[in-house]
Every structure is written in C-alpha cells, then in structure tokens.
Amino acid sequence: MYKNFEYYAPTKVVFGKGTEEQAGTLVKEQKCSKVLIHYGGKSAVNSGLIGRITKSLDEAGISYVTLGGVVPNPHLSLVYEGIELCRREQVDFILAVGGGSVIDSAKAIGYGMANEGDVWDFFVRKREAAACLPIGVVLTIAAAGSEMSNGCVITNEKEGLKRAYDTDLCRPKFAVMNPELTMTLPAYQTASGAVDILMHTMERYFNQSDNMEITDSISEALMRTVMKYALVLVKEPDNYEARAEIMWAGSLAHNGLTGCGTEGGDWASHNMEHELGGMFDVAHGAGLAAIWGSWARYVNHAAKHRFVSFAVNVLGVLPGASEEETINKGIEAMESFYKSIHMPTSLTELGISPTEEQIAWMAESCEQATGGANGCVVPLKKEDMIRIYEMAK
Ligand code: NZQ
Ligand code: ZN
Predict the structure, then answer these.
(1) Which residues line ligand 1 (CB under 6 A)?
(2) For residue range 293-344, what is the model confidence (pLDDT) as tens digits?
(3) Which atom of ligand 1 is nearest to the CA of 193?
(4) Predicted pLDDT of residue 138
(5) How remote is the CA of residue 142 from the centroid of ligand 2, in Å?
(6) Closest ligand 1 atom to Cα of 181
(7) How much distance in Å is there from the Cα of 304 to the middle of ligand 1?
C-alpha cells in the first residue's frame, strides 16, 4: 500500500572538481550583505581551502567574518559565540566549510540569529523555531548528509547531552561538493562516514510498512554502491570515482529520498548513538557501527521481511533454510563488512566501556529524548535500550 509522503529537497547541488571556486558566485546569488565563514579545527585551513574560499568571496565583492574551531560533536558554547559574533557584525548568511559538525554548528547559529531567546530550547523541545538564517555549504567529508538534510545535531558539552532538532527551515540553499576535498580525510573518518551514509538509508529501510518498490530499489542500490566503494577507499584513498560515488550517496541517503513512503523510518540506533556521542565524544559513524548489530538482533523478529530483503538484496546472502537463518547471515555479513573497513562492531572495539550506571543514564536520557518510545520496528523503552547497550559491550 503506497503511503502518502512529502519530498522537499530545495538545496542546489554543485558537484565536481574545482567547484569550490564558485563559492563567491553562489553566495552572491543569495543577495546577502555579510557572510560568516564557519569552519572546523584545522583541516580546511591546512589544505588551503579556507584561503581559496576567501579569495572567491573577495573576487565576488562579498564581505565576511570568520569563525573556526568547530569540533566533532559540535559544542553549544561555540554556537553561542557564533550568534554573538553574527549579531555584532550583522551577518545575514552563513557559509559552512567542513563536515556535519561545521554545518550543524552553522545551522544552530542560524536558528539563534533568527529567533529570540536561548537556541538550546529548540533542541530540548521547549519551543519551535520560526526561522533560520540562510546557510550555504562547502562539504569536506561525505558522511552526515547535513548538506541537504533538515537535521541539526548539537552537543551541550556542559550537560553531556547531544540532541537533534529537525525542521525544513535549516536546509542549506546550496551545497558545493568536490570529491577531491575528501581525499585528505584520515581512513577512520572516511570509513566512519561510509557507515553513517549506510545507516541513514538503513534507518529508513527497516520499518513496519510494506514500502514502495522504487524507494526500496533506490535504497538497496545506494547501500551496495557505498559498500563497494568504501572497500575501494581502504586501499585507494585517492580514487576519485570512489570518492565521488560515496559523496553523492551521502547526500541522497539523507535528503529524504530514501524515506519516501517509509513513514519516517526507525532511527533507534541513531538516537542511542547520540547518547554515546554526548557522553563519550565518539565519532558518530563508528558509534553506529558498534551498536547496530545488537539493535538488529534485538528487533529483527518484528520486521522479518525487511531483514530478509536486506540480507538477500543488499548483502548478497543466499537464503537459508528459514527466515531466521537468512536474517542472521545478513546481520553477520553486515558486521563483517564493518570489520573489513576497520569499523568497530562492539563498544569495546569502539574504545569505551560504559558502567552499568552510565548505561542506565544513557537509556533514560534517550527515552526522554524520544518521548518514551525509540524507533518503529520495536518502539524501545528504557529497559530495551539497556539490554541493547549491554549486548553491544
Ligand atoms: O575539524 P577538522 O580539522 O576539519 O577535522 C574534521 C573532524 O575531525 C575532519 N575532517 C573533515 N573534513 C576533512 C577532515 N580531515 C581531513 N580532510 C578533510 N577534508 O573529520 C572529522 C570529523 O568531522 P565531522 O564534521 O564531525 O564529521 P561528520 O560529517 O561525520 O559529522 C558528524 C556530526 O554530524 C552529526 C553527527 O551526530 C555528528 O555530530 N549528524 C548530523 C546529521 C544532520 N545534520 O542531518 C545527521 C547525522 O545522522 C549525524 O547525527
Ligand atoms: Zn547519522
């Protein structure tokens, strides 16, 4: 049965070699008067990218201020700093140069600029934003998909809380994607990004509905493609085709396309990983890889047909004597893929060993964040999540 859906992907994509040189022109099209160039730790400065972006803005006659220092699992304190800077400098457009963390920090500054009061209120569901300053992106890592998504994930580092706020208001106006820019990524970040891209598709793929064949087929092709080229990148990090396939997949995986007709998807693994990120500051994709297998073993009984299709159509598993056998082979095949790109499949491999108290705290916090039921395959309560975190140890 086809489910009604809305698909809204307003971001202009400019893809390919040398496209960052168009940043100035693209910003100018937005008819803004002052820009904040927002970036991360050092990779974009060291590679000369920030220099090329400022040159391009200078040539287009656009004035700007800069704010670097965004860390992975981006901090609320820098968001506050950015809002203050933008108010002082009367910034009306934000150009994020970096990955999901930089883009999300830019989106949060955008929300803070366009609304009164404390921006954190939106992330803890106290109230809704009415607007967001326009955002543009020059992407440097294929992973989070924030360059086209409605998502924004910020960590309140003082409280150890990582929270998402999703509205169409923050979808970027444009996204510049040059796959070459991702060649300087450490192997761990490349692999972690590939996991996140897969998981954005899997979160939508695993659900209780019958689905649309076209959406399923797009999702399955996307997952096969990402797995194929993530393996290539382990050996050949400078392979342009592989970088390009994964970069484009990253945007398609999280711009809503693979969710058309799936009623939103599950997202339980993501919500549980956000707790890990808030408490232990782990890389997002690696955190997902560490808990997915345990989640899958815990819930697959409730969506057997989806887990069978995943095993056969995505992982190429030969159907076993029973559905259960096929499903188990599929989960094992996915975990062995994660291992082959050097991603963890347990919390120990992720490098953390949460105590019982910490697990109970994360499960409680996740239950609160998800309103008492995390996911749709099996709506997870605190006790279920404790079980999954324990299984993932
Ligand atoms: O700070 P620098 O020096 O740039 O280093 C970064 C960072 O350490 C480095 N990096 C990025 N591009 C590079 C590079 N290093 C060398 N060469 C390059 N070209 O990579 C590290 C990770 O960067 P980050 O932006 O944190 O990665 P990612 O894109 O994976 O973003 C992760 C964040 O996005 C959130 C995650 O929770 C996490 O906070 N997500 C955002 C979503 C959204 N807005 O829709 C959805 C996702 O599910 C996710 O939750
Ligand atoms: Zn993600």
Answers:
(1) 40-44, 72-73, 98-102, 104, 140-141, 143-146, 149, 151-153, 181-182, 184-185, 189, 193, 196, 254, 270, 277, 284
(2) 999 999 999 999 999 999 999 999 999 999 999 999 999 999 999 999 999 9
(3) 30
(4) 98
(5) 11
(6) 19
(7) 33
- Read off the pLDDT of residues 357-389 as tens digits, 9 standing for 90 and up: 999 999 999 999 999 999 999 999 999 999 999
Q: Considering only CA atoms, which residue is closest to atom 2 of ligand 1?
A: 41
Mean pLDDT across the chain: 97
Name the band, by pLDDT with cuts 50, 70 and 90, for residue 1.
Answer: low
Question: How many angstroms is it from 9 CA to the middle of ligand 1?
Answer: 21
Going from the Cα of 260 to the center of ligand 2, the distance in angstroms, rounded, reads: 18
In the 3-class helix/strand/coil scheme, how is the chain assigned residue by residue?
A: CCCCCCCCCCCEEEECCCHHHHHHHHHHHCCCCEEEEEECCCHHHHCCHHHHHHHHHHHCCCEEEEECCCCCCCEHHHHHHHHHHHHHHCCCEEEEEECHHHHHHHHHHHHHHHCCCCCHHHHCCCCCCCCCCCEEEEECCCCCCCCCCCCCEEEECCCCEEEECCCHHHCCCEEEECHHHHHHCCHHHHHHHHHHHHHHHHHHHCCCCCCCHHHHHHHHHHHHHHHHHHHHHHHCCCCHHHHHHHHHHHHHHHCCHHHCCCCCCCCHHHHHHHHHHHHHCCCHHHHHHHHHHHHHHHHHHHCHHHHHHHHHHHCCCCCCCCHHHHHHHHHHHHHHHHHHCCCCCCHHHHCCCCCHHHHHHHHHHHHHHCCCCECCCCCECHHHHHHHHHHHC
- Does the model's pTM come out above 0.85? yes
Ligand 1 nearest-atom number relative to CA 107: 44
C-alpha 251 to ligand 2 mean position (Å): 12
